[in-house]
Amino acid sequence: MKTITMMDLRKSPGEFCHLVSRHGESFLVTSQGKPVFKMVPVEDVTIIKSDGTITGTKPLTFRQKLGGEYAN
After folding, report:
1. Any idea what the Cα angle at residue 52 is, between residues 37 and 70, rounded to 5°?
2. What are phi and psi of 45, to 5 degrees?
3. Per-residue pLDDT tens for 25-42?
């Protein structure tokens, strides 16, 4: 994953959006040297809906007791 600054993103947001959506690249966006957010392709995102269904990769959990296929 490449790191870019918030200023880089402000200068050319379309370029970075294109790289993420068309080429599957990911970026860690920083502000004043600290991580703020990640830009990743939608395919790399885990979505947990209000009804409990999960789309995408298995989420990472920290000391949570989950049932079903996520119990292990």
Report:
1. 80
2. -100, 140
3. 999 999 999 999 999 998
Question: What are the strands, taking DSSP E only, across the chain?
Answer: 2-5, 27-31, 34-39, 47-48, 54-55
Evaluate whether 41 touches 24 at the Cβ level (below 8 Å).
yes
The residue-averaged pLDDT of 8-25 equals: 96
> Model pTM?
0.66
Say if CB 57 and CB 69 are below 8 A apart: no
Per-residue pLDDT, 43 = 84
Class of the domain covering 2-70: alpha beta
CA 54, CA 22: separation in Å to the nearest integer?
24
Nearest in space to 59 (alpha carbons), one of 46, 49, 50, 68: 46
Every domain of the chain and the residues it spans = 2-70
